[in-house]
Amino acid sequence: MRILVIEDEKPLAYLIRRGLTEDGYAVDIAYDGDEGQYFAEDIQYDLIVLDIVLPKKDGFAVCQELRREKVNTRILMLTCRDSISDRVKGLDSGADDYLIKPFAFNELSARIRALLRRDLDQGSPIIQTGEISLNTVTREVKRGNQEIVLTSKEYAILEYFMRNPKAILTRQMIENHIWNLSLDTESNVINVYIGRLRNKLNVKEEDGLIETIKGAGYRWRME
């Protein structure tokens, strides 16, 4: 999953990116409000971590304009402002949650997982297709009772598929969703990862669970 961090304090932005990357997310950083808004409108993110006090345009304005432009990405505001009026203003501007600095990274990580779970039908951390289950909190993947060990990128691709069943995902969509802006992916990288994922899940292409759509991309089928 891909997250945008809009934070002008570079040491904090780097720490957040490092922690979220270790959690398996692809992370982009913007250092001012204008740049952050441009990224958020141009790229499809799963979640935005948005500071309030920013150069050029503050977080309240960024959030309001993104909502006005129908960008519905989950937004978690970060700020040192702890008054109730500021929290109300942040939520009223369109934010989904609000975290006060300083904060423990574990809390940030937990709040992000909670926001992302809202997109699941029952709000459960478990996504299941047939014998295959994926726990979005523990990142544990199983086929039946057997645990399957995946790399962070393999897990991210599988989660993307399972959150978008029956949708055709192009190679470009997968690359944009899984890798950040700093990576120039090779032309066959998606094919390689899909092959590895099929092998680890013990599913063959002809089984149709990870279906190749010729000339288009791939599709996760729910029977």
| Main sheet strand line-up | 2-1-3-4-5
Shape: elongated
Which series of helices and strands comes N to C? Answer: EHEHEHEHEHEEEEHEHHEE
Portion in strands: 15-25%
Biggest sheet character: 5 strands, parallel
Number of strands: 12
Number of helical segments with 4 or more residues: 8
Q: Uncertain spans, ≥5 residues at pLDDT below 50?
A: none
Question: Taking all residues together, what is the mean pLDDT?
Answer: 86
Number of domains: 2
> In CATH terms, what is the fold-level topology of the largest domain?
Rossmann fold
CATH architecture of the largest domain: 3-Layer(aba) Sandwich
Backbone structural class: alpha/beta
CATH class category of the largest domain: Alpha Beta
Helix content: 25-40%
CA-CA gap between termini = 24 Å
What does the radius of gyration come to?
Answer: 18 Å
CATH superfamily of the largest domain: Response regulator
Q: How would you sum up this structure, described in words?
A:
39% of the residues lie in helices and 22% in strands. The protein is of the alpha/beta class. The protein has two domains: 116 residues, Rossmann fold (3-Layer(aba) Sandwich); 95 residues, Orthogonal Bundle (Arc Repressor Mutant, subunit A), CATH 1.10.10.10. A five-stranded parallel beta sheet has the order 2-1-3-4-5, sandwiched between helices. Strands 6-7-8-9 form a four-stranded antiparallel beta sheet, with helices on one face. Helix 3 links the parallel strand 3 and strand 4. Helix 2 packs parallel to helix 3 and helix 6 packs across helix 8. It is elongated and about 55 Å long. The two termini are 24 Å apart.
